[in-house]
């Protein structure tokens, strides 16, 4: 009974309520992950000073740059497992589980070497302020030195999501989150380890989350059971995972690269601006994850229904998801902006830092609904098995436009401000959503026609 209760069959029943049942625990899980970062930023900002705050905050875009390729592969594992699950192909689900876990281990090893040895070089290229460069580099070396559990957790939770189980990853992150906060306070306040303590607390807590999700898969008694003796690569399935996940990962990398370039522009205004930007980015993340939870839910929802070839339901999922995410982004985003000064004050009490943070919230949060619907349309296309097209659209529409904006408009003296830098976000979101939606219409009609021809031959 317990195993059955952890599954959500997304191929039948109410679209909205099943999507909500899947997405809400996922949102809470993402909130807990963001609280890891918030705990890092708040503790280090309050007890280690603004330089330490800027050091931790300025590493976010670089971490995303290096991690996103492998997170993209976990998306490939999620989509592949969900399609086999929706089609009732249990043996292939099992092969996907074991292939994915092997892939997560090798991905983590590669990322460890890349992060430890390349971080400082990239930080220098990003024009990180000299007074925080060594602190940022120390944080990243510790963080990436323990990145393997983070990758394993992401793959493991992606596999659980494939069958609709988002509750247990939430429980695991809650446990790890409590430990993270306690260790943050101990290492920074008691041991006075500053950014090193924050990084170490994150690594330990993520290790605990990874252990719990692996043990969860080991104890499963269905097709998602993990048997260490069966850990091997099924190359046809790995090809499917990579085919879907690699473009998603490259899309994440290019997004992160554009954000690194934006971070570089922000860094040029000094450590006060960097600190304010770091706090605001952390706050707006809570709005993003509310939208992103439904976006990830849509991905799994569409993947299961593609396995069943139910195009009418996919169309309904599209409508429900777009409306839900738009209203979440609009309401939550504008609420955060109105409370901006109070919220940033929790991170740092410096009035100049608060002022700089509010500038970012004014641009990003008031238009965040555009980001939400952009992500949902990309997830729908990817869930239908087409990962290259949303990658290409995002590279040109979202990332290309941001880089072009920084290279042209931002260089004009009268437009050389953080406000103008941040305007690149809503512009890129709108452009990408518009093209994504056109691509979705094309893919939907194409896949529906292919399915119809296949049925006519039977």
Automatic annotation (TrEMBL):
Q: Which domain of life is it from?
A: Bacteria
Using the UniProt record, give the first listed, main subcellular location: membrane
Record localization = Cell membrane
Keywords, sorted A to Z: Cell membrane, Membrane, Transmembrane, Transmembrane helix, Transport
Pfam families according to UniProt: MatE
Matching InterPro entries, A to Z? MATE_fam, MdtK-like, Membrane_Transporter-Flippase
**Transmembrane region positions?**
15-36, 56-81, 102-126, 138-158, 170-190, 196-218, 322-347, 359-381, 388-410, 422-444
Record keyword Membrane present: yes
Per the record, what is one GO cellular component? plasma membrane
Q: Which GO terms describe its molecular function?
A: antiporter activity; xenobiotic transmembrane transporter activity
- Record membrane topology: Multi-pass membrane protein
Q: What is this protein called?
A: Putative MATE family efflux protein
